[in-house]
From TrEMBL:
Superkingdom of the source species: Bacteria
InterPro entries the record matches: Acyl_CoA_acyltransferase (IPR016181), GNAT_dom (IPR000182)
Keywords from the UniProt entry: Transferase
Residue ranges crossing the lipid bilayer per the database entry: none
Any one GO molecular-function label of the UniProt entry: acyltransferase activity, transferring groups other than amino-acyl groups
Lineage: Bacteria, Pseudomonadati, Bacteroidota, Cytophagia, Cytophagales
One Pfam family, short name: Acetyltransf_1
N-acetyltransferase domain mapped to chain residues: 3-146
Protein name listed in UniProt: Acetyltransferase (GNAT) family protein
Length: 146
């Protein structure tokens, strides 16, 4: 059965933590809920292989400037290169267009080279930079017009 994406739950996101090694200090469910309470609109997406969660993407309305913020996401190592990240992104883009957003934004760390490549390949442009204590932790802001 092919991979599918649909809206899901924070419990499913948390259950995926152990399969995504980049999440070295994952947030608690309460932290996610707090962030979502502070925003006008939020979205929890889960990628499934049959009925088994294999990836996620979270986002929320961060400001009233017409953009939607893709906060975080990840795909289980077992399902990388299978298209899950692309399906999650496409679902989020379609959802954002349907809700009237004009662009999709996110930031990533300099150390996440695969994420940077993925973003650039999928039409995102670098729009900003936040220095950090070490070069690998510098934050890079990206945006894609919808």
């Amino acid at each position: 059965m092919p991979l599918t994406v649909r809206e899901g739950s924070l419990d499913e996101v948390i259950a995926l933590y152990s399969a995504i090694p980049e999440l070295v200090q994952p947030y608690s469910k309460e932290r996610y809920e707090e962030q979502f309470r502070e925003s006008m609109r939020s979205l929890v997406l889960i990628a499934y292989d049959n009925d088994r969660p294999v990836g996620f993407k979270l986002g929320y309305e961060r400001s009233a400037d017409g953009s939607f913020y893709s906060w975080m996401g990840g795909v289980a190592q077992s399902h990388r290169q299978a298209g899950a990240a692309g399906l999650l992104l496409q679902f989020m883009e379609d959802w954002c267009r349907d809700k009237g957003y004009e662009s999709l934004r996110f930031k990533t760390r300099n150390t996440h080279v695969a994420m940077l490549r993925f973003a650039l390949k999928n039409g995102f442009q670098i729009i900003g930079f936040e220095p950090a204590a070490t070069v690998d932790q510098h934050r890079i802001w990206l945006e894609k017009p919808l």
